[in-house]
Design goal:
This protein is an alpha+beta fold and about 80 residues long. Helix content is about 15%, strand content about 25%. The termini are far apart. Bound molecules: zinc ion.
Amino acid sequence: MPKPKTLTCQTCRSRELHEPLTPDEKKWLEGQLGNRIGDDFYKCVNGLPDGRICLNLRRHSVEKHFALTKRLPDKKE
Ligand SMILES: [Zn+2]
């Protein structure tokens, strides 16, 4: 299982803690992309001023994997 890492975030424009995707999040992203993905996708867990979590997605090896930035949907809690 991949571990959290500090990586650059395209949205925050700084180095922030990123966590690997949970199985549910991975399934969601695979649905979005229409293909299976490996374990190298991470989400930014930096807190934003409005109280949300950034949730911008990137690959470990590629900062700008998506042509436009892509983030996970906010959880319905
Ligand atoms: Zn971020």
